[in-house]
Write a structure and sequence with these properties.
Number of strands: 0
Largest sheet: none
Helix content: 55-70%
Structural class: mainly alpha
Strand content: under 5%
Number of helices: 3
Length: about 90
Amino acid sequence: MKRPSKHETLDLVEIRRQITALRSRHSENLRITHLLNKLFINIAYLSEPESAAHAKQLREAFARTMADIGKRVTENARKPSGKANK
């Protein structure tokens, strides 16, 4: 997943594409889908950030969400699958 640098303009269309792809990849995990949907809702109405401070806030929200998803994916990988026990 590409993360925008602090010096390039915030491409909300690209972020939406990344969120959609990640949401599709993890569609079976409702916790991850929920996090991505929340982020999607926060940027859905925007065509561009309102200011530099707003762009910074959006970048930070994107980074926090990606970190939280990475943590949850790692936690899920460590848990034994319930399917193996059936």
